[in-house]
């Protein structure tokens, strides 16, 4: 029959391949319209779609099987292979959901619907992973979620039993949460994504019994939760801004990579090639109300306007700002574009011509970070580094009300409520505030909860909620009237969150972050990907040797303290957890039995150095972040310095204050140190002065001036005669401890802030660590450099400490590592010590010199042994790649653990296992076990088949 219709139907040359189509749409209408087509040609569309669905199921039943793509090895990603999937199988895998969705419920009997359900349950469910394999091989893994959701929302499945909807929901969760692994490697659908499923998942229940010799993943103290609807990847740098289209169909994003991208909300696919034109990073994007245009603001000082369909520029770059454009917004009628800049001004432009509609608005005294139009378009709100929110008349540029005051640090984001009655603001002071838009009065003075800078705020479409995104890597949703949290913090991003926005219907939240991803969340549940049953978690600011030099302690932003053995680099105890915010400083007691730590959570804690157990309740008293702790030489007291501009001295046994708070600096205290005889305390402050205090009375002994910027670190010489100080002015100074006079000219050499200084045990050398990523060693008498700068860290250095024998220097860095260096040569004496999942702020040697303790932004303290020869990794045998089929153990170091791309790799970058990013902070990588941790992820690879042997994992 088809041959007889060649005049109206196109037939491919090879009749077993290709697509049959009509030459003209009218012929299709003719065939499907009763009364026009004869009965023998009439096509009932619903029936036809049903037939196509069943035929798709039939083909999948016969053709789908394990390793249908014939992937030879698990070591390499998909692009290394040329997979051959038959065209028919390609078609059915990509189209069966659409045929199911097109079936008319009204024209389908109950028996018919039952047959659809039976087909899914009997055929698709048992072959689901093989279907995912086909999509992966076709480079269509990103479409999996859209296809599943198309089936799940099909009208004929409205009354489907719970078992069907539950399976499809779990299937969608699987392809969204493991998209990285699925898209990267066919083999790792089975070797990585499948093992990471929660045990209650319907996918796990069906497929786990069919596989052996795959990784075993054990979650302890963690609830399995997956509420990320979609993860969009494509930007190759931080995502700074995200926005929904008015119809909610697509998302626009801007990035540090200088591009703007547009994404389909259902599939996660880019709608077009990246929009390029800006010559520097993109700070802000905004969609016009009619969805036709995208405006963008950039560090290149320009605003650009693009066609939302084509991505082409619709006019020349809008120029006028003298510095970076930090924020852009369309007026509600789309006629105007407002822009904010680091040049302290706001400008308003004609959206069609790009010409200024009024003179640039001046009034802020510092960089303007954010602008927003009121819903009626009459006003513009702005937030600035000058800590104020201001409201301006759009036509005149005049202020409408007095500046809104309340935030104590920069205002990063502002947003009007949908009715225009309120303005929400976010700040670097970690709070959100809500203001009356007419009067400027505070409605909710301070919404607290975030533990980092709040970068973005957005009202829900109905105005009932406010969403906020923060540097603490969480999104939070608040009641707009009360300021109370309405759901638990939303977690999933692995870096600072720069932007959040609600979908037009309020059902979704979109977020953009420094981890280069865009994520969509369910705004109603908003539950985190995984949630510790008992709170824990992030950077390393401080390090210290034990007095014998056998241990180093480090403090971190991940709220943990780590204690490590110098000889083996092994954790001696599990990461010490308890702080609820980043750990700024750690110190060993003189006898090495205890570790003191301080945190942004305003507490000092004291731990048993062997067990990691707290020896007393948290020491409370400071009213702000605590930056530094130090034990007195006899171990009886602990001194602490804080952002609250006080030093406090505590009894090391009881935790009680031994005197009133010490005050005197006009800025926050950065660092404290006891003199070797314990009679004095030195402190460095943000006010640029160094002060010396009587350790018994707290009275000021002297004020030392000379630095021109914040003093981040102070240290006494071992004989107590001198005090060294390191400053943001890039200078080290050495002072006479009795007179306060400089004993030499400022020591110069670092090219950025100096965060840490330390004397060698014999007093002949000074070590310093800096934001310029180097450690330098100086002659303590002359101030001359004793060697070239020590390089090795990839980011700023927060802390340096000498070993008790003076032969080594430990350093901790924003790059999440601790390094140990030979004092004479400047060479590394071991591999970098990994374990923290955030910047390491502090490191300390134990008094006997055998261990290191470290404190980090990840809120943990770790205690680790270090080997001078450096740990070697034995996770792979020395056999050639094609013969490596033996057991695998996790690396002893992170040398092959790519936290940036989520893969554990072999020595030649072979893919071993993909680890979900939300597990990173809890991951146990033997032998660096986090002992006593209430939340952890343990991965056992000892029985895994891999390489050419990977196919043996399937037992059917």
TrEMBL record:
It holds the Pfam family WD40. Coiled coil: none annotated. SUPFAM superfamilies: WD40 repeat-like. Residues 370-528, 628-787 form the EML-like second beta-propeller domain. WD repeats lie at residues 232-273, 275-316, 318-359, 361-402, 404-445, 447-488, 490-531, 576-617, 619-660, 662-703, 704-745, 747-788, 790-831, 833-863. Keywords: Repeat, WD repeat. InterPro entries: Beta-prop_EML-like_2nd, WD40/YVTN_repeat-like_dom_sf, WD40_PAC1, WD40_repeat_CS, WD40_repeat_dom_sf, WD40_rpt. Gene3D superfamilies: YVTN repeat-like/Quinoprotein amine dehydrogenase. Transmembrane segments: none annotated. GO terms for cellular component: nucleus; transferase complex. It comes from the Eukaryota. This is WD40 repeat-like protein.
């Amino acid at each position: 029959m088809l041959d007889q219709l060649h005049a109206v139907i196109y037939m491919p040359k090879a009749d077993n391949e290709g697509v049959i189509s009509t030459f003209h749409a009218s012929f299709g209408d003719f065939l499907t319209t009763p009364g026009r087509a004869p009965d023998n040609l009439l096509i009932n569309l619903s029936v036809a779609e049903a037939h196509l669905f069943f035929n798709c199921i039939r083909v999948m039943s016969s053709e789908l099987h394990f390793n249908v793509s014939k992937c030879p090895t698990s070591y390499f990603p998909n692009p290394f292979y040329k997979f051959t999937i038959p065209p028919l199988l390609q078609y059915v895998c990509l189209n069966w959901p659409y045929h199911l969705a097109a079936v008319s419920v009204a024209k389908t009997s109950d028996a018919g619907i039952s047959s659809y359900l039976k087909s899914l349950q009997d055929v698709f469910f048992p072959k689901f992973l093989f279907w995912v394999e086909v999509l992966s091989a076709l480079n269509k893994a990103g479409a999996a979620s859209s296809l599943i959701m198309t089936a799940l929302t099909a009208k004929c499945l409205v009354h489907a039993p719970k078992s069907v909807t539950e399976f499809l929901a779990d299937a969608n969760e699987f392809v969204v949460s493991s998209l990285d692994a699925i898209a990267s490697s066919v083999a790792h659908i089975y070797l990585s994504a499948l093992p990471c499923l929660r045990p209650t998942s319907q996918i796990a229940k069906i497929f786990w019994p069919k596989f052996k010799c795959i990784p075993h993943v054990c979650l302890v103290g963690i609830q399995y939760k997956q509420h990320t609807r979609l993860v969009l990847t494509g930007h190759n740098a931080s995502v700074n801004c995200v926005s929904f289209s008015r119809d909610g169909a697509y998302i626009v994003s801007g990035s540090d990579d200088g591009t703007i991208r547009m994404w389909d909300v259902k599939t996660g696919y880019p709608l077009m090639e990246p929009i390029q034109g800006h010559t520097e990073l993109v700070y802000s994007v905004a969609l016009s109300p009619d969805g036709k245009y995208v405006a963008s603001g950039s560090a290149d000082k320009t605003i650009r306007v693009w066609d939302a369909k084509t991505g082409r520029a619709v006019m020349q770059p809008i120029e006028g700002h003298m510095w970076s454009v930090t924020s852009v917004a369309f007026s509600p009628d789309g006629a105007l574009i407002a822009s904010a800049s680091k040049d302290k001004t706001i400008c308003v432009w004609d959206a069609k011509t790009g010409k200024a509609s009024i003179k640039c608005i001046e009034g802020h005294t510092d960089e303007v970070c954010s602008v927003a139009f009121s819903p009626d378009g009459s006003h513009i709100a702005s937030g600035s580094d000058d800590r104020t929110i201001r409201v301006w008349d759009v036509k005149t540029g005049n202020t409408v009300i007095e500046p809104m005051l309340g935030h104590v640090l920069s205002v990063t984001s502002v947003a009007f409520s949908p009715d225009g009655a309120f303005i929400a603001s976010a700040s670097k002071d970690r709070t959100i505030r809500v203001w009356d838009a007419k009067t400027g009065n505070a409605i909710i003075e301070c919404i607290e909860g975030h533990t980092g800078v709040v970068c973005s705020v957005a009202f829900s479409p109905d105005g009932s909620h406010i969403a906020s995104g923060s540097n603490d890597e969480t999104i939070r949703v608040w009641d707009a009237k009360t300021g109370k949290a309405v759901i638990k913090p939303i977690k999933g991003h692995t870096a600072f969150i720069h932007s959040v926005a609600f979908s037009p219907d309020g059902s979704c939240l979109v977020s953009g972050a420094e981890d280069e991803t865009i994520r969509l969340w369910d705004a109603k549940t908003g539950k985190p990907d995984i949630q510790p049953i008992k709170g824990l978690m992030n950077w390393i600011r401080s390090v210290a040797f034990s007095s014998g030099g056998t241990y180093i302690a480090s403090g971190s932003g991940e709220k943990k303290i780590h204690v490590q053995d110098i000889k083996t680099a092994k954790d001696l105890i599990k990461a010490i957890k308890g702080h609820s915010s980043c750990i700024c400083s750690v110190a060993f007691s003189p006898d090495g039995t205890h570790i003191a730590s301080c945190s942004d959570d305003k507490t000092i804690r004291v731990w048993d150095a062997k067990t990691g157990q707290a020896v007393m309740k948290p020491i409370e008293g400071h009213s702000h972040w605590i930056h530094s702790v130090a034990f007195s030489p006899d171990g009886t007291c602990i001194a602490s310095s804080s952002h609250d501009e006080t030093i406090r001295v505590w009894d090391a046994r009881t935790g009680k204050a031994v005197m009133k708070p010490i005050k005197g600096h006009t800025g926050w205290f950065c660092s404290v140190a006891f003199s070797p005889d314990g009679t004095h305390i030195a402190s460095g402050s943000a006010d640029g002065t160094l002060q010396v205090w009587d350790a018994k009375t707290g009275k000021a002994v002297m004020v030392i001036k000379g630095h021109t910027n914040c003093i981040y670190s102070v240290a006494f010489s071992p004989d107590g005669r001198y005090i060294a100080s390191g400053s943001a002015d890039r200078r080290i100074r050495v002072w006479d401890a009795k007179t306060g006079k400089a004993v030499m000219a400022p020591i110069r050499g670092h090219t950025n802030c100096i965060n840490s200084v330390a004397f060698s045990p014999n007093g002949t050398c000074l070590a310093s660590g800096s934001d310029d990523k180097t450690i330098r060693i100086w002659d303590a008498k002359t101030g001359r450099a004793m060697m070239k700068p020590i390089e090795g860290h990839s980011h700023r250095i927060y802390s340096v400490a000498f070993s008790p024998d003076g032969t080594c220097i430990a350093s901790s860095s924003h790059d999440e590592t601790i390094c140990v260096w030979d004092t004479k040569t400047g060479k590394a004496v071991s591999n970098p010590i990994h374990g923290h999942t955030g910047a390491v702020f502090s490191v300390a040697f134990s008094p006997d010199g055998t261990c290191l303790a470290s404190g980090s932004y990840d809120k943990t303290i770790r205690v680790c042994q270090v080997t001078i020869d450096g740990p070697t990794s034995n996770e792979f045998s020395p056999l050639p790649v094609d013969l490596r089929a033996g057991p695998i153990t996790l690396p002893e170091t992170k040398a092959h653990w790519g936290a940036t791309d989520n893969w554990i790799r072999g020595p030649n970058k072979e893919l071993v296992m993909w680890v979900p990013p939300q597990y990173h902070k809890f991951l146990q990588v033997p032998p660096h076990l986090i002992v006593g941790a209430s939340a952890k992820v343990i991965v056992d690879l000892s029985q895994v088949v891999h390489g050419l042997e990977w196919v043996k994992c399937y037992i059917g």
